[in-house]
Automatic annotation (TrEMBL):
It comes from the Bacteria. GO terms for molecular function: DNA binding; DNA-binding transcription factor activity. Pfam families: MerR_1. Keywords: Coiled coil, DNA-binding, Repressor, Transcription, Transcription regulation. This is MerR family DNA-binding transcriptional regulator. Residues 91-139 form a coiled coil. SUPFAM superfamilies: Putative DNA-binding domain (SSF46955). Gene3D superfamilies: 1.10.1660.10. Residues 9-77 form the HTH merR-type domain. SMART domains: HTH_MERR.
Length: 166
């Protein structure tokens, strides 16, 4: 016989049905660390009303077009009662959300810059290897090593001349 004060716990299927999403959606948000349901003795996920409210919040924010990174920042702050009687974020919470998102953007800018440097290095190496590959293929095709080396030297000198003019 259930105790009146005990919270109702729902399985993944029941919670998904109540929220009108798939069980996979709930599991995905758990994998992303947005929700941490309790577990039964048999290790089944069990969702309480707080979990369902959190999921509802996530789903509303997703429907409004927010990214999961943005939602993660927003979930760190509680909703508060506003002057209009609605629940929302205080100015302080919004500033904290802004700061968290700005920090993520800065971090991504640094990663992009690093990847762009690596890409340039990889493109340069590819060009050098392509020249080497071309040389070996021409040698295999029977071209003279001396002639190919002269062409490589002339090409390298031309590249250096163009590089100093730029």
């Amino acid at each position: 016989m259930p105790i009146a004060d005990s919270p109702t716990l729902l399985t993944v299927r029941d919670a998904a049905e109540r929220l009108a999403v798939t069980p996979r959606t709930l599991k995905y948000y758990e994998e992303r660390g947005l929700v941490t349901p309790s577990r039964s003795e048999g290790r089944y996920r069990l969702y309480d009303e707080d979990d369902l409210e959190r999921f509802s919040r996530i789903l509303r924010l997703r429907a409004l077009g927010f990214s999961l990174a943005g939602i993660t920042e927003m979930l760190k702050r509680p909703l508060e009662n506003t002057e209009s009687g609605r629940r929302g974020y205080s100015m302080e919470s919004l500033q904290q959300i802004r700061d968290g998102l700005a920090q993520q953007v800065e971090s991504l800018d640094a990663r992009i810059e690093s990847v762009q440097r690596e890409l340039k290095e990889a493109q340069k190496l590819k060009a050098e290897l392509s020249d080497d590959l071309d040389y070996v293929q021409r040698r295999l095709a029977g071209e003279s090593a001396d002639e190919l080396i002269q062409k490589r030297r002339a090409s390298a000198a031309l590249k250096r001349t163009k590089g100093t003019k730029a």
